[in-house]
Design a protein that fits this description.
With 363 residues, the protein is mainly α. The chain has one domain: Amino acid/polyamine transporter I. The chain is built from 14 helices and no strands.
Length: 363
């Protein structure tokens, strides 16, 4: 199946940036401070270097197999049957990640906005938007994202700037540095490395649509650096505001935003969180969904992925309801299981492919 859509470097950069920031903007500060305490921001910065190296692995595959997705070049490298097995593993990751993000989105909306509304309602509405975006193709998805970026980034800028005006803000809460020990911070860095940086492996399904493939390296590294800076600053601000209590908050970013007062201009500042979450969440889910349906279409040699979009959307929605029993289980999974589980897809799979291909070229 050939992807007809072509997108430019600017569109891909902002798509990657939004993908990285989406759920991480809300969840990462709480997750890393829960493990590394007030040094959570440092864990993010440490993960940035490893995340950049990981992205170079993805871009190396992209450049080496220009115009082909990971589903296609996996079969070229490993042979038809082993390659298809790896392809199935990859599309499962896209499906699972999409369902997890959808569930994260739904739980946040239920807890912070409408506690009496069934989870399935939020998940179904968001999934419907993602289905419509993906059905229209990658070009439409990128254009849609580009329209949302100014709103999302300006909202984040407002949050970062006005967090300094919160009455309880005290930079001294960040001291002493590495109070929990550097080894603990280093271990915690595995969390932001795998969520969200490593999740960008899904763009191996989108890079072939780029009009200038050689730009992938600077796009990926640039997006990771920008996302890391934003996440590190937000994490540090939550600690400055809440001190040692930051690690006990489920959504510390949202809690901090609710403390911001913009006089009479904007009384419900926490509405900014909702706007960012809705807009960014839809984009990240759409990227996961696109990687899943396009991957399935290529695995089963379909001429077009669109006939399977609707049933695939139903599957992802159903899985999003089944993945967790409750929010506590979600938090435990994100901090303890995901960092190791996701490395299979984010590191081992692409590393195996590039290693096998390099060995084949030698012999």
């Amino acid at each position: 199946m050939k992807e007809e859509g072509r997108v430019n470097s600017e569109q891909i950069f902002f798509l990657v940036l939004n993908f990285l920031l989406a759920s991480a903007f809300i969840m990462i500060p709480s997750t890393v401070t829960g493990k590394a305490g007030k040094d959570g921001w440092a864990a993010i910065l440490i993960a940035t270097g490893a995340g950049s190296l990981l992205s170079m692995l993805y871009t190396a595959l992209c450049i080496r197999f220009s115009g082909r997705t990971i589903i296609q070049f996996a079969q070229e490298i490993m042979g038809k049957i082993p390659g298809k097995i790896l392809g199935i593993i990859f599309v499962w990751f896209a499906l699972h990640l999409g369902a997890l993000v959808l569930r994260n989105f739904g739980d946040f909306m239920v807890i912070s906005l409408m506690p009496s509304t069934p989870l399935i309602v939020f998940n179904a509405v968001v999934m419907l938007i993602a289905v419509m975006a993906v059905y229209r193709g990658i070009e439409v998805l990128c254009h849609f994202n580009l329209m949302l970026v100014p709103v999302i980034l300006s909202s984040m800028a407002v949050i970062i700037i006005f967090s300094f005006t919160i009455h309880d803000f005290d930079a001294a809460n960040l001291l002493p540095l590495f109070e929990s020990g550097f080894s603990r911070v280093l271990k915690t860095s595995l969390i932001p490395l795998t969520f969200p940086f490593g999740e960008s492996v899904l763009f191996l399904m989108i890079f072939p649509c780029m009009s200038v493939p050689r730009d992938t390296k600077k796009i990926m590294v640039g997006a990771i650096l920008a996302a890391a800076l934003i996440m590190a600053v937000i994490t540090a601000e939550t600690v400055a505001v809440f001190g040692s209590n930051a690690k006990n908050l489920m959504y510390s970013t949202h809690s901090m935003i609710r403390c911001i007062e913009l006089a009479q201009i904007f009384e419900r500042t926490d509405a900014i969180t909702i706007v960012i979450w809705i807009l960014s969440g839809v984009i990240k889910i759409s990227v996961c969904f696109y990687a899943f349906v396009k991957g399935c279409a290529q695995l089963f040699a379909l001429k077009d992925y669109r006939p399977i979009v609707v049933p695939s959307g139903i599957i992802m929605t159903a899985l999003s309801i089944l993945v967790y029993e409750n929010v506590i289980e979600q938090t435990e999974f994100a901090s303890k299981i995901w960092p190791l589980y996701s490395l299979v897809f984010e590191l081992l799979l692409p590393l195996m492919l590039i290693t096998f291909d390099s060995v084949k070229k030698v012999f």
